[in-house]
Amino acid sequence: MSTDARAKLKSVDPVWERIRAEALDAVALEPLLGGLIHSSLLHHPTMERALAYRFSLKLASGEMSEQILREIADEAFASDPSIGGAARADVVAVHDRDPACHRFLQPVLFFKGFQAIQAYRIGHWLWQHSRTDLAYFVQMRVSEVFGVDVHPAAKIGQGIMIDHAHSIVIGETAVVGDNVSMLHSVTLGGTGKENGDRHPKIGNGVLIGAGAKVLGNISVGSCSRIAAGSVVLQDVPPNTTVAGVPARVVGKAGCDQPALSMNQILSGD
Description:
It comes from Neotabrizicola shimadae. Belongs to the transferase hexapeptide repeat family. 45% of the residues lie in helices and 14% in strands. It is an alpha/beta fold. The chain has a 6-stranded mixed β-sheet with strand order 3-6-9-12-14-15. A 5-stranded parallel β-sheet has the order 1-4-7-10-13. The chain is globular.
């Protein structure tokens, strides 16, 4: 492949191009949103620049200006291209799994779960670069603005969908794999005052129902389901469904990819 061909391939960005096309349609349908959509999306040459703008606009306060936050976000995106890649995967995940999401632009503009996770990713980048106080500041503002409290040291994959995203808590040593779906009021927490590795490890493709609490340094196997309201205190095998307080295995996961199907009905299988 020639250098020109590689450059052209690298410039292809179907997610961002779709967002821009939807933005133009949205302005035509609702001119009153023209200022918001132009400043948030159409004004920016790349998705990374648009996300940095949204990050700075949402998290700015009397303690930290939009300009400083914008510079932090731009630096993070430039330093680590995987942050932008994960954001694109998250957009697609939300669109595919949330029946209330009809366009790619909705998560970027309106869904606090998506916006909170993108802000976490910048905080996590700061944490990885030993800028811990700034990372804590981002965590604080995300919690205050979006009601989502994710420690910047937590490790979260891509293709994440958090529906409604109210009262989400993810602790310091938690790990969340790729293509995970969770609903509001989920806690991935510890069980006491112990230090060290003390939070859950969530495998790929897991579906976590509303209000579920997963506590302690335990593993939830890939492609499992945790029923709404459950309290999980022990390891969960892959491809299974657990429910109850405390949670017990009640059957198989019901399908190969429960996080993608979003089927939360317990059928006794």
